[in-house]
Amino acid sequence: MQSVGQFVVQRVVRAFLTLWLVVTAVFFILHVSGDPVALLLSESAPPEQIEALRAQLGLDQPVVVQYGKYLGSVVRGDFGKSIRQRQPAFSLVLDRFPATAQLALAAFALSTAAGLAVGIFAALRRGSPLDRLAMLFTSILQSGPPFFIGILLILFFSVQLGWLPSSGRGTLKQLILPAVTLSGLTMASLARLSRSSLLDVLRNDYIRTARAKGVREGEIVRVHALRNAALPLITVAGLELGGLLTGAVITETVFAWPGIGRLAVDAVSTRDYPVVQASVLFIAAVFVGVNFLVDCSYALLDPRVRGV
């Protein structure tokens, strides 16, 4: 069995390898997707002006040379300047992160509380009409596209009732609709997983022994069952949090939320290479970092994981 130190070192190496693969893949995919110079200049621009701009942006060099220079700059923490906005690309990403973090944490808190409540409620009433209704509700959330759910919420709560604003950021009311939209899929996943995990634990012999001793059902669930059902929930919750923190592109676009996801979409549409690369690498780093912490916490809670 591995020690904790060996386990952590192995995960750190995997994390850096993953980030390198992400940087490499994004670089070459962007460079075969089109020429940003064609978007920056008009079709009537003279060839001399086109070549001068390509040289200024470093696009006149071989792709391998561009990749080597870019990889070296990334290691130094330099992601270049936005082609469109002429500002440091990584600064633009960092400026958008608070908006994404606010939306992600609100959605995560809502989905965790609601998902665990629905899952535990359904598990304790297995086979009942309420259990089937809860699972039907989670299936609808899992199958419904976020953009469709977001548009429905806008039509009902903003257009019809006029209770909540349909876009923007700055007030609590503007946070509600995008947070609810973003939390739907995560809530459904946690609800179904918590139900199945709790049902598996409730079938164990030590649960039957506790019941035979006269321990109250609430204490059995709270003290014995939930603690042992928590391990898979920690893993899934960590993955979901990482996904939420990396920017929900669709949700941020539908609600005009000024986060990283929307910044990346705008940069892709204008072929703003530095911003796209900085956005994707930042997203990957956050996701890998969250998963690293989840792996470490999982290994501490269950030593058997270190033997894998």
Write the layout of secondary structure elements.
Elements: H1 4-31, H2 37-40, H3 47-57, H4 63-75, H5 89-124, H6 129-143, H7 146-160, H8 172-202, H9 205-212, H10 217-245, H11 249-254, H12 260-269, H13 273-301
Q: Roughly how many Å apart are the termini?
A: 8 Å
Strand content: under 5%
- Average of pLDDT: 77
Q: Indicate the percent of residues in helices.
A: over 70%
Describe what this molecule looks like in 3D:
There is one protein chain. The chain is mainly α. The protein is built from 13 helices and no strands. The relative contact order is 0.15.
In short:
This protein has 308 residues and is an all-alpha fold. The chain has helices at 4-31, 37-40, 47-57, 63-75, 89-124, 129-143, 146-160, 172-202, 205-212, 217-245, 249-254, 260-269, 273-301.
Question: Notable features of this structure?
Answer:
flat; mainly alpha; 308 residues; 76% helix
